[in-house]
C-alpha cells in the first residue's frame, strides 16, 4: 500500500458484538460472527496496518467503553488504531492515547465545541486527532454534520471544515450517512467538495463502499484513505483485493 493512501478496515462494536448500522439507524442493526479482537486479528493477518474502531454505545450515550479491547488489539495485532465514540472531553482523549490509540476520533464534540477540539489539535498534535464530520444533505441542499450517534443534525459542514483546516487539522473523516451500510458506493461529490474547502487535509472516505472500484476511485480522486465496513464483513470485498486496489 502506498504511503499516501490508507485502507482502514472498520469494526463497529455495540453490546460487545461486531455490528453494522444501516444509515446510522440503531434500530437497523446487523450482527456479525466473530469477537472484535478475533476480527481485528484476521484483518492484521490479511495485511492491514490500520484499524478503525468505533464504540457505538458510547457514540450515543457518551463514555467510551472499549479501552480494554483497544489495549488488547494493539498488543495482539500490532495494528495502528484510530478509535472514537463518546469522546466528550480532554480526559477522554488522554485515556484513549494512553490505552494505545494512534489517533482519537472526535465526532459530536467536533461539531458542538470546535474551539475545544482545535485546542486538542494544538496540544496533542495533528497526527493524533481525527475529526469525523459525518453529514446529511438538508432540505435546502446544505451538508450538515450530524451529532449524538448521527441522530441529530448540527452545524453546516462547510464552515466546520474550513475552520478546522485553518486550525491545522490533518485528518478528516467524513461519511455520507445516507450511504452508510447501504453498499451504494461512496459519495465522490462530497469528498471533492471537502478537498476543495480544505485542500491541505487528508480526507478519509467512508460509507457505501462496495468493491475495488470504489477503493481505486477514492484514491484516484485525491482522498488519503478509505474506511471499509460491511463489504469486508460480508465477504463482498476481500481486504487483500482492497489493499491491491489502493496501490494501482
From TrEMBL:
<protein>
    <recommendedName>
        <fullName>1-(5-phosphoribosyl)-5-[(5-phosphoribosylamino)methylideneamino] imidazole-4-carboxamide isomerase</fullName>
        <ecNumber>5.3.1.16</ecNumber>
    </recommendedName>
</protein>
<dbReference type="Pfam" id="PF00977">
    <property type="entry name" value="His_biosynth"/>
</dbReference>
<dbReference type="InterPro" id="IPR011060">
    <property type="entry name" value="RibuloseP-bd_barrel"/>
</dbReference>
<feature type="active site" description="Proton acceptor">
    <location>
        <position position="12"/>
    </location>
</feature>
<dbReference type="GO" id="GO:0000162">
    <property type="term" value="P:L-tryptophan biosynthetic process"/>
</dbReference>
<comment type="pathway">
    <text>Amino-acid biosynthesis; L-histidine biosynthesis; L-histidine from 5-phospho-alpha-D-ribose 1-diphosphate: step 4/9.</text>
</comment>
<dbReference type="InterPro" id="IPR013785">
    <property type="entry name" value="Aldolase_TIM"/>
</dbReference>
<dbReference type="InterPro" id="IPR006062">
    <property type="entry name" value="His_biosynth"/>
</dbReference>
<dbReference type="GO" id="GO:0003949">
    <property type="term" value="F:1-(5-phosphoribosyl)-5-[(5-phosphoribosylamino)methylideneamino]imidazole-4-carboxamide isomerase activity"/>
</dbReference>
<comment type="similarity">
    <text>Belongs to the HisA/HisF family.</text>
</comment>
<dbReference type="InterPro" id="IPR023016">
    <property type="entry name" value="HisA/PriA"/>
</dbReference>
<keyword id="KW-0368">Histidine biosynthesis</keyword>
<dbReference type="GO" id="GO:0000105">
    <property type="term" value="P:L-histidine biosynthetic process"/>
</dbReference>
<dbReference type="InterPro" id="IPR044524">
    <property type="entry name" value="Isoase_HisA-like"/>
</dbReference>
<dbReference type="GO" id="GO:0005737">
    <property type="term" value="C:cytoplasm"/>
</dbReference>
<keyword id="KW-0413">Isomerase</keyword>
<keyword id="KW-0963">Cytoplasm</keyword>
<feature type="active site" description="Proton donor">
    <location>
        <position position="134"/>
    </location>
</feature>
<keyword id="KW-0028">Amino-acid biosynthesis</keyword>
